[in-house]
Amino acid sequence: MEREVGVNNVKIAVVGGGLVGALNACFFAKRGFQVELYESREDIRRATVVKGRSINLALSHRGREALKAVGMEDKIVSKGIPMHARMIHSPSGKRSPIPYGKKGQYILSVDRANLNKELLSAAETYPSAKMNFEHKLVDWNLESGSMTFLRNDGSTKVTTCDLTVGCDGAFSAVRKRFMRQSRFNYSQTYIPHGYMELTIPPKHGDFAMEPNFLHIWPRNTFMMIALPNLDMTFTCTLFMPFEDFEKITTGDEVLDFFQRYFPDSIPLFGEEALKQDYFRLPAQAMVSVKCSPYHIGTTCVLMGDAAHAVVPFYGQGMNAGFEDCIVFDELLDQYNCDFSICLPEFTRLRVPDDHAIADLAMYNYIEMRAHVNSKWFLFRKHLDMILHYMMPNTIIPLYTMVTFTRTRYHKIVKRWQWQNKVINRGLFLCGVSSVLGGTYLLIKHPPCTPSIKLDRLWNWALSLK
Ligand SMILES: Cc1cc2nc3c(=O)[nH]c(=O)nc-3n(C[C@H](O)[C@H](O)[C@H](O)COP(=O)(O)OP(=O)(O)OC[C@H]3O[C@@H](n4cnc5c(N)ncnc54)[C@H](O)[C@@H]3O)c2cc1C
């Protein structure tokens, strides 16, 4: 049902019709704002080739809550594939699952293009929303408020609005205008790794591997992951330093590389298909962008990747972008759509959270490709789960807080640091008390005459040497 807040004359321009822009158009139109969405690409619902980033994405709690708020959750979830655990593939081909959370907790593999199409169609159902495809923002005059869009036929459209919402991605044209603003902070970091997508086809009309898992081949300095698709394929993403991608220049080198590091995956790809797939597209770069503030005055705000592009290793970029929309919507409720309060409040609330998830995503970059190979890491994961089971409100695993709650990201980081301190101290105390207890018992009840004779012990030690 639409909420009546007397906003029908307020004109909002959403720049960017990707995932966050399309969802935002739904949120604003639902309130009755006059929404104009401007997207530089053609309408992907009619496009024959959809260019862009990852084919599928992991949708989790924050994203689902935002979709629920615009009545889209069930539709999207029904086309998603639940992934209950990570499935770790060792170099020998051994597979070991590590659950994401408690029983019943899972993330969903969803098709990016389908999600984008559904959100655009949902936005279009509101009479106050208008879509403008093939409209690229090329100029925006903050003083006069006029925005210039370049159409594909070379013509331009100049327009004004009451609020500009920049959802135009990591290389945002809206954000460029912020750069000329005094006291605007901005940083961007390219990680040394690139990514490449490869496809595992169905096998005998079924998934070639267990479908309800996010498959991971961690190899310390690089890794491959695979997410299932509805058509029973898997989209594999190989993350690797660019210099390593560049070393592989022939089909035979591709096979050698996979034979060495991912041997169990070769029969799944098929040798010939793998050789071709590898050279289909060059490896893509990954950038992490942080900026602050997210708004200018009462007329412009950034959301999604335009405000905070994060590396994809926590599966939170889109989820955080969707959460931006719901947080802004909550602020509109709280402050009766007064932009002079909502915009600064949005910056105040979201900047620390988005910066925290950017840092967590960088941290997970190392955890996924390297830590999951360590016995200590696996022990800690199990211990965290046991402690969480015993004290569900005191110890909550980091992944659970990030993925299955809406706890603010920056609070999660603080809590995680506190939990780690408590658990590590607990483990230290357990270790010290076992050593002291064992020593006490040995002194109190010394063992009978040793059954191993000293000369035999000496010989054994010499043989070891
Ligand atoms: C390999 C990879 C895997 C990922 N996996 C996940 C995952 O599992 N889970 C997750 O939550 N996130 C994931 N992400 C992150 C996620 O893709 C992004 O966070 C999300 O796409 C951000 O949406 P957005 O709408 O802000 O930006 P975008 O999706 O980039 O959309 C921006 C839109 O703006 C348009 N645009 C750009 N410039 C202009 C202009 N000048 N004028 C008009 N329009 C313009 C673009 O054409 C585009 O349609 C992944 C990212 C990558 C790279």
How would you describe this structure to a colleague?
By secondary structure, this protein is of the alpha/beta class. It has 3 domains: 11-80 and 111-189 and 287-368, FAD/NAD(P)-binding domain; 190-284; 375-398 and 413-444, no CATH class. Helix content is 43%, strand content 23%. It has helices spanning 19-31, 61-69, 73-78, 112-124, 173-178, 242-247, 251-261, 266-269, 271-278, 305-308, 317-334, 339-369, 375-390, 398-404, 409-444, 454-464, and strands at 11-15, 34-38, 56-59, 81-83, 85-89, 95-99, 107-111, 129-132, 135-140, 146-151, 156-160, 163-166, 185-200, 213-218, 223-228, 234-241, 284-292, 295-296, 300-302. It has a 7-stranded mixed beta sheet. The chain has a 6-stranded mixed beta sheet with strand order 8-2-1-12-19-18. A hairpin with a 5-residue loop joins strand 15 (223-228) and strand 16 (234-241). Helix 11 packs antiparallel against helix 12 (339-369). The longest helix is centred in the last third of the chain and has 36 residues, at 409-444. The protein is globular, with a radius of gyration of 26 Å. The termini are far apart. Mean pLDDT is 93; it is low at 1-5. The structure holds flavin-adenine dinucleotide. The site of flavin-adenine dinucleotide (FAD) has 33 residues, from helix 1, strand 3, strand 9, helix 10 and helix 11. Its main location: mitochondrion. This is Kynurenine 3-monooxygenase. Belongs to the aromatic-ring hydroxylase family. KMO subfamily. It holds the Pfam family FAD_binding_3. One of its GO terms (cellular component) is mitochondrial outer membrane.
